[in-house]
Amino acid sequence: VDARHAGVRHSDDWDGFGQRTTGSGTSVYDNVPLPATHVIPFEQRFKYQTAFYQLVLLAVLAGIGRAVERDIAQEVRDRKRVFSHGNAGSVSQDSQVQQVVGQIAAQVYAAEAATLRSAEPLQRAYVARFGNDPQREKDANIAAEIETAKAQVIVSELVLRAATELFNALGASGVSVNKALDRHWRNARTAASHNPLIYKARIVGDWRINGTEPPFVWQIGSGKGNA
């Protein structure tokens, strides 16, 4: 619909603790016309669309991971106070603090690698869409769904862990509201909550064990028995 129509009302009522500027508020449509040409049945759209949307969320998580790695390295470099039972005269030279930062860097590296890997089957699904081989297209779409699901399970875990462990390299001052380092965990947790990870893992497991095809479209509020 035309978002500028007089019958369209948007409310900035998203109250999530993360991703606060996503514009995810409520929209109300009152007698808003919907031209038939604007309705595109699912079977006429690109069938790997849900996997594509998941890749966007994966990219968001990977980006949050990069921000975690950037901020913790800078915080450690700038930190002047040291603990009396630490391992060096400066925080940046403390081997255990270096280990924390190194682990975070490795977690972020793995998250980025998984995100990039999951983009490859999407490209193959895109190419298959323009071929004349229905079975090849179906197989490519399944691969895109499964690969992005696997990536979401592990990327979410890695980035959330990194966003928590960064505080192990800092003192109590690391939780300062002015630093807002908690935003990384809040944003990652919000992005990872768009699609429950338990279902992603179950879908992958069902595919690996039983060959059950993954769902290609889903939504909240229309589960079994709620039609």
From TrEMBL:
UniProt domain Acyl-CoA dehydrogenase C-terminal: residue ranges: 58-195
One Pfam family here: Acyl-CoA_dh_2
Keywords in alphabetical order: Oxidoreductase
InterPro entries: Acyl-CoA_dehydrogenase, Acyl-CoA_DH_C, Acyl-CoA_Oxase/DH_mid-dom_sf, AcylCo_DH-like_C, AcylCoA_DH/oxidase_NM_dom_sf
Top-rank taxon, per record: Bacteria
Biased composition (Basic and acidic residues): 1-13
Name by which UniProt lists this protein: Acyl-CoA dehydrogenase
